[in-house]
Design a protein that fits this description.
3 domains, two-stranded antiparallel sheet, 434 Repressor (Amino-terminal Domain), 8 helices, alpha+beta, four-stranded mixed beta sheet
């Protein structure tokens, strides 16, 4: 095999993609699997710098489907619960909960992987639960509502057990990480970029089972917990 080199231009990029396709499916821990991991990291870095693409916005997807099916806000009350809740979600003042996502996916047939994404500019009015730290102090965890903008809020301490889902569609791989994992960095990854055309981070999740459920829903061939942080 040839020596691995940095990706400096589109020609290098296309050649690296071709090699990734050739190595696709290589077992982790083998020379081919290790090479695949390194090449995927190089692709991530190049795309983060040159071709970052914003993921689809869930609120825009809901409004588009409403227009397609000629639905009114009143038609969504059965999904969101009340007229006020509908307004809060569509005006990006409230993030989508897991229950909302399930109902939207079933009723409007919007793919769950779109609804799970953070909504640009969304705010959540949900109260985050308080938990006790190992020292016995009460701390406030991050918001458990999906669709709210990721990242810490002012004055809020991140919980130890915060989970994120990473997927890379070039190598058909998905992982669940702890937020504190060096590969995760609370959803920013080693390149400190939440998404690009090759991969993305989803979260945070305060519930481990929810993170694994989202990972499973992505349908990636290689899906499991991170070997580094073992969530």
């Amino acid at each position: 095999m040839s020596e691995i080199r940095p990706i400096r231009n589109e020609t290098d990029y296309e050649a690296t993609l071709a090699e990734v396709e050739r190595l696709w499916g290589a077992r982790s821990g083998t020379p081919e699997g290790d090479r695949l991991d390194v090449l995927a990291t190089l692709i991530d870095a190049y795309e983060s710098e040159h071709d970052s693409i914003d993921p689809p916005d869930p609120i825009d997807a809901i409004k588009f489907r409403m227009e397609q099916q000629q639905l009114t806000r009143k038609d969504l009350e059965g999904i969101f619960g009340t007229r006020t809740r509908v307004a809060e979600v569509l005006n990006r003042r409230r993030g989508l909960s897991i229950t909302m996502i399930r109902h939207l996916a079933e009723t409007l047939k919007i793919p769950a992987d779109i609804l799970i994404r953070p909504s640009r500019g969304a705010l959540s009015t949900n109260k985050a639960p308080c938990e006790k730290s190992e020292a016995g102090d009460r701390i406030r965890t991050t918001d458990t509502t999906l669709g709210a903008s990721p990242g810490p809020r002012v004055g809020v301490r991140r919980p130890i057990d915060e989970y994120w889902v990473y997927q890379n569609w070039t190598v058909d791989r998905a992982r669940v990480h702890r937020g504190t994992c060096s590969y995760c960095n609370h959803g920013l990854g080693i390149h400190r970029n939440s998404s690009n055309r090759n991969s993305e981070w989803r979260g945070p999740f305060t519930d481990r089972a929810a993170a694994f459920a989202v990972m499973t829903s992505l349908g990636r061939t290689d899906s499991r917990a991170c070997d580094n942080c073992a969530p």
